[in-house]
């Protein structure tokens, strides 16, 4: 299977702490890097965790609160000054372009490097990016300002050829691509060999869902159902559920309950309020409901 | 003498490195903190070096390149969320307000905390701030975009009373304030005692000049002459003097020569290009011309 992982660059909420930067993550699939959110200091974390800034070509921004975007201008400058070529694609609320253009108006022009902004749809689920290996959808969350979650899904893998059968039937190389795609095989004599006799099942398709900042929303269950890994914010413990509701955030217990109802395989909680010196109580609270819960810590890598 | 110091928060130029953040410094005089420039991660450095963000009420921004301002939105947010009250004064090019307002339009409103922007004058020297202890002037530098240097000067100190003479003449407390300010004393019998018989000289008045980003400018010598401490950028070594000129920066040798001609007491060089893994060659180059040169390193504190 191709390496597929999520690295936490920042796990704090609005106020960074001495050990937690504001929100940012890198999703890596087969050496392609996708950045989600970009709080202040994201470029510092990328350097610290030895992730190549130059390999990031796509950035997904959940919403326009400062702790999710204030690292963008510095990261973009560093990419440009570092000689990055081509296009950097940013998927966000349409206002971001104007905010960044204004802030960077005194930056030098770079002929070979360009930032391309793609406006997100905050009303319904939508495919926002696709390449040969992955499909990325956005879907609406519910926060004080428009906010999206993202789901990263591998594309269907090819079936594995059964070497013994392929050899025995002496199937030409040109026909094997179609068989890996699910086709039956017709011998020169006209006999049909069904696909399942020629192949082993494909590797399972893996998926990762990212949900912050939001109230706990049951409406997203059909979207995140059965994902291998769910990152969900848990800004507060359940004692502060009133505050969570008021500020449009989620408690650790609520996140765990959602993970259970959506039958996800593993839950990461993060976006912790800076009031928690230790996040163990939040993890404990979540594990009562959903045992396979882990806290996001800056630098942690989760392999799918 | 009141404690007067400069703490380096960032000493890199546009590209931060693993040990150097972009430009920012804190000047501290008698527990009052003045921030100069605010590159990305300034709030992180303030926390790391245990400097109280809440005590900063005045920020001076030399120019609007990203490596001098990208830490501002995060710092302002953190101040607001941390419950800072009153006014934060920012002295900068007039465009900064619009840039920040745009970027922070989705931030919550805070009733008791307000940012007040003061436009700088980029044509001539001007007093921009004054309180009971200090006067701060801006003066024009020469960079690719409008840029100012800053000079922090203590106000004249009071003269020290000569306890022996004061006691002998039995001078009432109410007259001593005027004597500390330089007045002579008239005895009840009408005799005039000249001030110099009643006082020792005041503590010397200390001063700090901050100059980045700029070509080396002899025109500023009358302004920075005799300062106790000069911070001057030295982005490049003298081998790259052509590049320095082209990008409107200064070499280490040029900064040292300027320090010598201005007869400053001590020189700090900084704003180092990220190409220098060690800045020792730049310090050595400067010391040939001006021996009392020191490199700026993140976390260094220089006492005046």
Could you characterize the architecture of this molecule?
The structure is a homodimer of 304-residue chains. Chain A has helices at residues 42-48, 72-81, 95-103, 163-169, 173-180, 221-224, 241-246, 252-261, 280-289, and strands spanning 4-10, 24-29, 32-36, 56-60, 86-92, 113-119, 126-130, 134-140, 148-154, 160-161, 185-186, 192-193, 199-200, 207-211, 229-233, 266-270, 293-295, 301-303. By secondary structure, chain A is α/β, with parallel strands linked by helices. In chain A, the strands form 4 sheets. In chain A, strands 6-5-4-3-2-1-18 form a 7-stranded mixed sheet. In chain A, strands 7-8-9-14-15-16-17 form a 7-stranded mixed sheet, covered by helices on one side. A two-stranded antiparallel sheet of chain A has the order 10-13. In chain A, strand 11 and strand 12 form a beta hairpin. The longest helix of chain A has 10 residues, at 72-81. The model of chain A has no long low-confidence stretch (mean pLDDT 95). Chains A and B meet through helix 1, helix 2 and helix 3 of A and helix 1, helix 2 and helix 3 of B.
CATH topology of the largest domain in chain A: Metallo-beta-lactamase, Chain A
Shape of chain A: globular
Q: What CATH architecture label of the largest domain in chain A applies? A: 4-Layer Sandwich
Q: Give the strand content of chain A.
A: 25-35%
String of helices and strands of chain A: EEEHEHEHEEEEEHHEEEEHEHHEHEE
Quickly name the level 1 CATH class of the largest domain in chain A: Alpha Beta
What count of structural domains of chain A? 2
């Amino acid at each position: 299977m191709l390496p597929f992982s999520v690295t936490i660059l920042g796990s704090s909420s609005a106020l960074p702490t001495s050990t937690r930067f504001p929100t940012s993550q890198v999703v890596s699939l087969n050496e392609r890097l996708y950045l989600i959110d970009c709080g202040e200091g994201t470029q510092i974390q990328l350097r610290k965790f030895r992730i190549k800034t130059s390999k990031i070509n796509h950035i997904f921004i959940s919403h326009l609160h400062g702790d999710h975007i204030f690292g963008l201008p510095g990261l973009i400058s560093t990419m440009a000054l570092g000689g990055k070529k081509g296009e950097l694609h940013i998927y966000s609320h349409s206002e971001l372009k104007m905010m960044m253009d204004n802030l960077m108006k005194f930056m030098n022009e770079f002929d070979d490097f360009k930032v391309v902004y793609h406006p997100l749809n905050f009303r319904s689920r939508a495919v926002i990016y696709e390449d040969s290996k992955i499909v990325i959808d956005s879907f609406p969350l519910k926060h004080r300002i428009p906010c999206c979650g993202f789901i990263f899904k591998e594309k269907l893998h090819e079936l594995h050829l059964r070497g013994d059968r392929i050899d025995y039937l002496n199937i030409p190389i040109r026909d094997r691509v179609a068989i890996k795609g699910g086709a039956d095989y017709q011998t020169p004599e006209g006999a049909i060999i069904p696909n399942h006799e020629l192949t082993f099942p494909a590797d399972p398709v893996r998926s990762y869902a990212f949900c912050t900042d939001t109230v706990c929303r049951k409406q997203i269950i059909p979207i995140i159902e059965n994902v291998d890994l769910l990152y969900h914010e848990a800004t507060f413990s359940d004692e502060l559920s009133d505050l969570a509701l008021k500020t449009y955030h989620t408690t650790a217990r609520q996140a765990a309950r959602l993970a259970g109802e959506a039958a996800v395989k593993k839950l990461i909680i993060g976006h912790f309020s800076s009031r928690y010196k230790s996040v163990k109580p939040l993890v404990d609270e979540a594990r009562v409901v959903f045992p396979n819960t882990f806290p996001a810590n800056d630098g942690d890598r989760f392999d799918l």
